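Student: I would love a firmer grasp of how sequence relates to backbone shape in proteins. I am handing you a single protein, as its sequence and its fold in token form. I am told such tokens are a discrete way to write the fold. I hope you can help me see how the letters and the tokens relate. Take your time, and here it is.
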Amino acid sequence: MRYITVENLSFQYDNEPVLEGINYHVDSGEFVTLTGENGAAKSTLIKATLGILKPKIGSVTISEVNKDGKKLRLAYLPQQIASFNAGFPSTVHEFVKSGRYPRNGWFRRLDKHDEEHVKISLESVGMWDYRHRRIGSLSGGQKQRAVIARMFASDPDIFVLDEPTTGMDSGTTKTFYELMHHSAHRHGKAVLMITHDPEEVKEFVDRNIHLVRNNSLPWRCFNVHESDEKESL
């Protein structure tokens, strides 16, 4: 099922175009990466897709329902989101558990299934052993992993991730990619992930969207080259 459709999207900062004629899509059940050279406006494209930035022209359609006909849930992880200070009062476990409440209502107690989902989410990013630590006492990389675990716990239909493995070691990174692949292929989730290291993730993804410079234009502007990851990565 098509979850995201972007057609003829162009975006500019002030009077400087940075994206021109972008077309791409993301379906349920696939893990898609977004790559490009430094400064290729990858984060800008994500923000324009999500409505955080307003495109100059073009259309973006995000499905209102998931593959099961229920209200679609989307989770967005911006780049380096973890910025909790030392006084942040929640433990890691409490923080990740809070990701379950929007699914069930804020005043409903979590059941055994919820608790198991929280545990799996923490284990998937190597944070189960840190569950009783205060968020504010963690390193930057550990905070990033706690934020990702909370996102997992919310069980969205679409994961939109901007370089999510920042601060992860190689073992945790591979486990994360395996989980994203499993979420897409076994549970029908859609994953759209910006990465600076396509070689690292290529065995897990289905397609790659690569932003390339449009040399026919007089300004620094990018459009899309899209292909099967086995051909492009």
